[in-house]
Amino acid sequence: MNYLDLYLQRNGIKRYDVYKATGVSQQLLSTHTSKSIEKYSNKVVMALAEALNKTPGTVLDELLALQKENPAFEAYNPAELLQGLEFKYDRIIIKGAYCSEVYKIMKGQLSETESMGFELGSAGVATVLAYAINAARDLFSNSDKVSRDIERKIVSYKLESASEENVTIRLKQLDY
C-alpha cells in the first residue's frame, strides 16, 4: 500500500510541496511509495517533518499508526481515483459528485459468476474477443485518457457499498 501519498493527502500536501519545501527530489519520494514504512530513509522522514513542520519522531509515529489502521484511499475526482487504482489500494472510497459516475461504471460490470459463465461457455474465445472490442472502443472513444484508464483499471475492483455521498470499491483479489 502507498502510505506515503495517503499520509501526505491526510496532511493536505503533495509530493511536489515536499520537494519545494525541502529540495528532496520527487523521484526519491516516489521510490518510497511502494516501500513499507520501516524501510523509509531518514532523508525522506526528515523531509516530511520539515515540510509539515513536525518532528521526525511525530511523522514516523503517524506513519506507523496509519499502517496499523490500514485505511481506505479517498478520491474526490477522476485524477485521484486513477491514482488509487494505479497503486491498487485495498479499498477506495469515492466521495462527492464523482461517486455517481463511478457507481454507474461499477453497475455496468458483469458479476464474477456471470463473467466466469460467459468465459467457460465460450471456451475462452470471448475473453480474446472482449479484449479486441475494448481496444477498438478505446481507439475510437471520445472520452479523455483518464476516463479510459479508470474504466480499464476499475475492473479489478468490486462494489462494496454505495450511497448518495460515497461509493466504496474493494480489490477483487483480496477475496481469493
From TrEMBL:
Recorded GO molecular functions are:
DNA binding
Q: What's the superkingdom here?
A: Bacteria
Q: Which residues form the HTH cro/C1-type domain?
A: 4-60
Any single Pfam family the record assigns to this protein: HTH_26
What is the designated name of this protein?
A: XRE family transcriptional regulator
